[in-house]
Each structure stands twice: as structure tokens, then as C-alpha cells.
Design goal:
Distance between the termini: 14 Å
Helix content: 55-70%
Largest sheet: none
Radius of gyration: 20 Å
Order of helices and strands: HHHHHHHHHHH
Shape: globular
CATH superfamily: Ribonucleotide Reductase, subunit A
Number of strands: 0
Strand content: under 5%
CATH class: Mainly Alpha
Amino acid sequence: MNASRPALLDPGFDLTLRPMRYPRFYDMYRAAIRNTWTVEEIDFQIDLGQLQGRMTPAERHLIERLVAFFATGDSIVSNNLVISLYRHINAPEARMYLSRQLYEEALHIQFYLTLLDNCVPDPGRRAQAFAAVENIPSIRRKAQFCQRWTDEMFAIGRIDSAADRRRFLLNLTCFASCIEGLFFFGAFAYVYFLRSRGLLPGLAAGTNWVFRDESAHMAFAFAVIDTVRSEEPELFDAEWAAQVTSMIEEAVDCETQFADDVLSGGVVGLTRREMRQYLEYVADQRFTMLGLPARYGARNPFPFMELQDVQELANFFERRVSAYQVAVQGEVCFDAAF
């Protein structure tokens, strides 16, 4: 790397793509472009019939809470991309990926809003779901958890000091490990539980694509963390480890409260204890990805989640991605003379 070029978190807004400092981020951008889908490709007709005639009130409550959180959660992630990440990651190839991620978050929001419009026919209940962060306590608590870490970064115009860099790392770790990596994964588990019972194939199909996108977002965030660790290892000290540990433990508690709400009607075949165990299992994967020791020693209680293989998400881009790849022509030579 050219010593005259800034490090990834140096203040400023580097615009120079040649010579490219972080080709891995550009590879991630290109992989994301190759995997494009639209909401219009998803067939919800079977889902609508099942919601009306086959599912219990407890299962419909689960779906309403789930989709309300997803629509809210992706909006929170989108806001943080602009407020906290795009402003401070000082590499144009990384910002290219973030631009693509912002598009994908908007697509996810469209997906879940479409579900709400079609699956929650009662206008009052639909309005409640759209305003989940205001009137559903279990979702409000998760939103407040997210907002606290966004607010930490919003007031920082430039990350000039080591303290500012640590705030940035905590924000990024929160969104990668706790929101996309834990809150969303808990929600995915409910969808795949229903899929294992032959329910809501349209929701499951769309969730497959959202799951793939979110896995890629996590992979990018952890790649940023690994890059900063290689450039500024002194930031990853005992204080950072303690703060991250406390953060993830709080996220597990938040998501457990959401499970209490989601399963409050008594969903046959799925218990609060199993969800808590699964959340602890996923949290241990996040600790490991961050280079920290596992805290819970939990095993995956859900055979239906083994297909999703949460243990290998760190290697997402090392595997060939299937389904809905759009051809992109042209190659980029990273070592070309500037």
C-alpha cells in the first residue's frame, strides 16, 4: 500500500480508485451486483391463502410482529449506513459497496412493506405494525438499542482521535453483530421454522434472498473490522473487548424479549427456551468472528437452520453463490499503472 494514501479510518474523503488500496471491497461490490432480485419475482398467492385459512391466531401474530420488525429494522440499518459508515470509511471502493448495500436495504423494506400490505388486512393492525418502534414495546426496545449506537456517531463530524475510532468500531460492530447478525438471524429462524412446516413459501423464498444479502453485509462489515485491526491493532484492546461483550449480551436479552412477544400466543413446535438457545448459539458465532471467546457454549437447537449454515458466513464470498445471478461484463486489473 502506498504510504502516502490514507488508512481506512483516516479523516477525509479519498476519491482515487487507482491504485486500488482495498480490492477485496471492490470484489464484494461486484458480487453484490451479480446477485440481483426484485420483489416482483416473489409469488405470495399461496401465502395469502394459508394466512387466511390454515394458520392459527398465534402464528398470524408471529408473522405480524416479524414483518413489522423487519420493515423497521432495515430502515434503521439504512439510516446508519448514511450517518455513520459512508461518512467515515475512507476508501472509494468501500463506499461503492455501501452504495449497493443501501439499495439492498431499500429493496428489503419494499419486500416487507408488500407483505404487510397484503398479509395484514385490518387497517388498524397494519398501522400499528408500520409504527412498530412507537407502539410495540419489544420492537421499541430493539430500536432504542440500535439508536443509542447511531447517536454515538451522529455527533462526530470527523474521527480524528483514537476515541472516535473506537466509537466507530463499536457502531459497526453493533450493526454487523447485533442487528444484522443477531436480530435479523433470530427473525430468519421464525421464517424457516414455518417453512419446515410447509407454510408461507413466498415469504421463505424472499427471505432466502434477504438472508443472502444480509450475510454479504455482515461479511463486508467484518472485512472492514479486520482491515482496521491490521492497520490500527491498538484499538482492539481489553476495553473494546469488554464493551463488545456487554453489547452482544444486551442484544441477546433484547431479542429474547422479542421472542417472548412473538411466541406469546403459544406457537406449537417452537418455544421461548429454544429461541434463547439459538440466539446464544448465534451470538457465540459473532464473538468468534470478532476474535473473542464464545460466551455461551450453546448448540443450535434447530435442525431446520442447519441448511442456512450460520457458522460459515465469514466465508460467504469464498463460496459460489447460487440463484439470481445477473451477468456483468468486463474485468478490472488491480495492478494497472495509474
